[in-house]
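Methods — Computational structure assignment.
A single polypeptide chain was analysed. Its primary sequence is given first, followed by the predicted tertiary structure written as structure tokens.
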Amino acid sequence: MTTAADIMHPGVRWVPATETLDRAAQLMREMDVGALPVSDPNDPNERMCGIITDRDIVIRCIAAGRDPSRVTAGELCEGTPRWISAEADLSEVLREMETHQIRRLPVIDGNKRVVGVISETDLGRHHLNDKQLAGFVEQVYA
């Protein structure tokens, strides 16, 4: 059985909710990623309180006329973050991503700490055949 831990890209880097968006964008560039989990600095376990994407920064900050050096990652986080257990199987991963139309899914361990992220690229590289990938894309981008 293929699990989320088998699929994920390990070694996720957090950004605290208090971090400015310009610094978050720099981290994304350095790490060549399009999203970062956001940690809650008021939580002693620094659990995830959201996720920000490069698109969030561009559309919801810069294009809105806001200064990314003055807006924090926490200000852009909305709603309940979606995640999946490292032990979840491939069908659970697909269901979560398709149901919520998300392209990046944080993976958590038993202590509810983010240990990786699954992207659509991770799924397409080794885990889905062409027909499954087409169905996934149709659901997520619908």
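Note: Residues 108 and 114 are 4 Å apart (CA to CA).
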